[in-house]
Fold these 4 entries.
Entry 1:
Amino acid sequence: MFKLSNAPLINAQQIDKRLESLAQELKASDFDVILSALTGSYIFTADISRRIAKPNLQIAFIKASSYGDSTESQGKVKISGIENLDIKGKRILIVDDILDTGNTMFSIVKTLTGLGPASIKACVLLNKESRRTVDYHADFVGFEIENKFVVGYGLDYANDYRTLPEIWTLEEV
Ligand code: IMP
Ligand code: MG
């Protein structure tokens, strides 16, 4: 059984403030396509993309799943939605919710590399550096967090909690 922590780990105002500065960092880099890794990044993608706001910045979605209904990574990553992606020669910014073991991002980057983009960079809202098992580091990070399972602002546990506007820690009871 799990329950939410008593107070949010990161509240909506803190998210807003960080997104403003993160968007400035991202604006300084040029990208052709934001490639959002669903489902966890759906809110972050909407909020950050409209802050970058460039007329020629395109958006595309893939789906990467690794977790099932568990709080532990399953290690295997399933990527769907790349069939119709046209990213050859384009500068790609992958947007994901969280870097945990790094398996998901590593697989996404490997898969995309095969499609011949000009460049690939990655932006994640949250980074759990201490959990990394593969040598992968994001180019842009919203918040560094401890090794705790978090939900809200798009992130789920068994598909629950995604619509909460803040980021909460999920505690085992
Ligand atoms: P990784 O492959 O271990 O880096 O895990 C990345 C994916 O696992 C993320 O895209 C999330 O979907 C999920 N994930 C990892 N940590 C958490 C967490 O604390 N809360 C919710 N989902 C998580
Ligand atoms: Mg995810």
Entry 2:
Amino acid sequence: MSELETPPPAEGGRTHWNSRLGFILAAAGSAVGLGNIWKFPYITGENGGGLFVLIYLACIALVGLPIMIAEVFIGREAQRSPVGAFQALSKPRSPWAGIGWLGVLGAFVILSYYSVVAGWAMHYVWLSVTEGFSGKTPDEIGALFGSVAGSGSISTGWHVVFMGVTIAIVLGGIQKGIERGAKILMPALLGIMLLLFFYCMTLEGFGDAFRFVFSPHADKLTAGGALEALGHSFFTLSLGMGAMITYGSYLSKKADIVSTSITISILDTVVALLACMILFPIVFSVGGEPGEGPGLVFIALPVAFSQMAGGAFIGAAFFVLLVFAALSSSISLLEVASAYFIDERKWSRKKAVLFTGISILLLGIPSAWSQGNAENPDLPGASRLFGPSMKKLTEKVFGEGKGHDWLGLFDYLSSNWMLPIGGLGIALFVAWGVGGEARERGFKSGSKFASLYWGWVSLLRYIVPVAILAVILYKIGIFTPDAGK
Ligand code: TRP
């Protein structure tokens, strides 16, 4: 069927994905995003590579994948957005619905700052095309990032553009907006990543990068780093806030959830590792530092582009793709928030998407004004308020030197608290809260992995809760494995 025809009438009147591939691409599009290309390489760098990557892979397989299957199962079973799905599968007014609420809140929090970072990537497309990076020294390129992120007006401008595009796609609906967008964005993204990867294989830093990422040396890893790997496995797979519940709710009841979840997790992991194998060879070849932090993608790569033949073109292509990756994720975040108003409040899609989209846009403005340099005497008042002053204020809660600016705080609260708690709730709900019969049928229907059913349930019952509780106790300061380090 062509995508231009009217969608097939769905069970209960709900719109469904056009095809299995469409769902996989949309869900993989949600998973693959700034988390893979911007965040994963820099936290790998900060945690010394090797062992961190190994722990991350274990977290994906043993915690992330079981929760992804659980989320898609909840959505497909209930055919509703998260808040309603928990009620439909337990009872009305059940406390489990709180997990759904936390998810809606999470969508607002995450998308508000996610869009600001994506806006920087848009600005970098613009920079690559107009002035390019060639002729600039590494220091100048580093300073350039500071001046872009640090400028409240540049960051806000692109944040508005990025939210505008996200809103436009989600207004198009499931098949004509989200699915069609993913079918264009994902293949393009994979194609250009492979090209960049082949290019990076020719660089002298490739061997060092390979050893850095894949040989398990433990020097820099702390328990805190290991727990960060767990938190990131939620973020990168879009888990813990109902994004996969929402996408799963547009699956027909016959769809196989296990092999699709495995495919999505593998795609996400491959992209994250590819991103490292693109960034680190470049960083090592120009003698850079892997532990550079959040500026890695915006500084290390432009430095390389400034020295490469055809760098302007490759640079533009790379940042276009970073924008694409961010866009297919931001779509899913906006869809979670909107689906609540569409399914539970019976708003029209247009009203729901405009309302949530514009609210998130406004909520993101303080993030856009939070990255100014505290040392700059001419820093505008707003930048001072949401940056350095916010850091001071939060130091009172998190301790000396551990404060966050507005953007950092939203990232911290969502990745470290909301997603793990949401994930824990989802695991417990599927492990103990829903009927065993529905769960077993749901897992096994149409799946060639039916024999893994008990393995899945056991992971959800024991391993997942213990792992997440360890993270939470560590954050609160009750569990202190790094003491004395
Ligand atoms: N997974 C995306 C990334 O890696 C971010 C994202 C999209 C997300 N939707 C989400 C994170 C839902 C948590 C929950 O960039």
Entry 3:
Amino acid sequence: MKRSLLDSQTVLYGVLGDPIGHSRSPIMHNRAFRECGINAAYTAFHVTAEQLHGAVEGIRALGLGGVNVTIPHKVEIMPYLDKIDEGARIAGAVNTVVNQNGVLTGYNTDGIGYVRSLKEETGVDLTTARVLLIGAGGAARGVAYELAREGVPCIYIANRTSKRAVELAEVMGKYTEVIGLGMDEIGDIMHEVSIVINTTSVGMSPHVDLTPIPEEYLHQGLIVSDLIYNPRVTRLLREAEACGARTHGGLGMFIFQGACAFELWTGKPAPIEVMREIVLESLQNRG
Ligand code: ATR
């Protein structure tokens, strides 16, 4: 059954962020609910930092099914929740909240979503991969944790500020072999790396002429992946493609983080293909 009308049984979901006007999450989730015949609706809530606590109370008071959380609230929302899932605790950030009879649990589906997208779109075997992760911020933490859980035997974390990379490597060292280094040291390890992943914002619109790693380090045998999806093809991915490397963009991560959230909320498998289709269509229409 394909529903389109709201009624008194409709369960409401949404995304909290500031700014939020360009979020593609509402069209993606509403399309998914409709596809699966679920009586639910999803909207975008513009919530400032001062309003965040009140907004979380509102989830309980109004009985929302759950929310996504985006910039700048992914860390700040954590103390207002009742429970934090282990992955979110280790990533240090929450992007999905599930409301179960007034008990709010925070999850992080960014890292899981990224790894699901990487595996499905490249078919890579992560259990033999040697990964260079560029960046040591929140996004890098979630991705590093999930890569370790997938059995990646060795992860190098390189960051402009090497101290942050070394600190993150220490934390993640509990899960697999992880080595932190400065960006200026990557020349020494490039020959043994099979996947390069950019988790920084370097190359994101409007700074599309920037790239996080010198072109001379790229080669044919690599998979090069960028978490950025605006633009769809970053300078890093263009240069990787030009030297024959396989490339993987950030759009899949967006789709799959949404898919994982959908599955947490509904207990049903997410209709990935229609979600991807409608987001692509919206990016083409609105740039
Ligand atoms: P997020 O949660 O999106 O990962 P973050 O925690 O602010 O955001 O982390 C941003 C990451 O991008 C960091 O690794 C940052 O490097 P520093 O730790 O040295 O700040 C990296 N980054 C941001 N802008 C950068 C730039 N212009 N050049 C190199 N690295 C940059």
Entry 4:
Amino acid sequence: MSKKRFYITTPIYYPSGNPHIGHAYCTTLCDVFARYKRMRHFECYFLTGTDEHGLKIEKNAEKAGLTPQQYVDNITNVFTKLWEAMKISNDDFIRTTQDRHIKVVQDAFTKMYQNQDIYLGKYEGWYCTPCESFWTDTQVGPEHLCPDCNRPVEKAIEESYFFKTQKYLPQLLKWYENDKVIYPINRKNEMLNTFIKPGLEDLCVSRTSFSWGVPIRENTKHVAYVWLDALCNYLSALGYGTDHDELYQKFWASEDSEIIHVIGADITRFHTIYWPEFLMSLGVRLPDRVFVHGLLMMKDGKMSKSKGNVVSPYPLIERYGVDAIRYYLVREVIFGQDGQFTPEQFVERINVDLANNIGNLVSRTVSMIQKYFGGAIPEFEKGVNPQDHELEVMIKNTVDSYQEKLDDLHITEAFIDVMNLLGRANKYIEETAPWALAKDETKKENLKSVMTHLAYIIFVGSKLLEPILVEKTPLIFKSLGLSESESDYSNILNEHILDNHKVEKGEVLFPRLDVNKEVDYIKGLMGNNK
Ligand code: ME8
């Protein structure tokens, strides 16, 4: 059954230093999805935010000589600024230090405790502070390294509350039966093989060895484990459990809403084992989809300041425009797989896809319509040239497959189809040679048809790219003489939408880049990773 409303969330980021383009990856992809849904007149609520408690933040604050609250207050705007610069259209930004969130975490803990899903015990094991995760002796091995990030773990022995993970395991496995809920499916198998089959341990859900967290009402020596705290953001942002829970009712409780969490592969366990079990304990329905994306890596592995291979999004936005960065992030890495950032590929994508495939197509078409028809787009007619029918079918198929793929979060693949359509239009120009048709009086109808098909493909292609190219598509519509209401998605299959519209030459949409010069420039931004 197709849903009427959508709730899409990114992970909430730990506030820290300077974000790199890997940080922008997930939020940009979610933004494209949210904009796509809204473009199709669906309601879509899009959430992101910051995860501000825990030992890691407490230690960082201490190093900076600040209280944890001062530290997070100073640094959270790193992300709000980034989302502004990336043109992210989130509906809310949740901070886990906000009162609206703290109360929900405390209530959730109380409810789980009253359900007898939580008991008091003593934790003895290992803790990875950068990942904020607990590990057993076997998991950390003789070297005592975190299985996720490979950094040394610390011994932790303290009084803690535990969540009974076995209690909800049968229900969890039932949820796993639906292949749609965890995507890609190998992530689900990884959870089954690595954590569930070897025997799921009860999860430590409170800490007593430090204090920067949400205090537990039942026992004020304890603060909530930062992952229990953080995961609750998805509910607290919607007003869950308060007198103003309209958003919760609309976007979470209602079966008419599709709940989608998008996360990085490194945090799958928390979102596909513990989070659904917490929700079961709270008696709240489970998300419809947990979509696990890969990491954007550098040639020498993960982006990290210590390796000096970090690329900040800001100089890229400033030099190439935000649309180019958004497009690169969507197109370069198939959503759900790992990918690699290289300056060469970055420049190539802009040149081939944006400067040639779109920019050049728009500019050539507008010039030809001006030259051959005084700037007025002729009326659309089907099937005049031998290729026209094929193009008409391709347009319809592209729109259908785009919708189908985007609805299913196959975001990269959806845009590859759009690019293929635009590529086909460029080839159509070479095949029909409009400059030759223009010299032959008997070919007037053929020439008209070439121009109308090209203009219509430009409209369809740029409309479909609008969720990514937020700055440039309005300029393309303007070049085609379209008003805002005419460029609405409802007109996507209306071949006559451009009839008699006056084209207008606009600025160069995506200037062609000098490959060597720009590759050198980007390498310069990457410090020692040349
Ligand atoms: O994990 N490419 O926060 P976080 C793609 N606070 N994604 C990347 C990336 C890269 N190079 N580097 C990091 C946390 N990420 C928790 C989440 S949710 C209730 C709590 C992704 O700031 C990473 O995979 O360490 C994760 O999904 C997200 O950034 C936030 O990471």
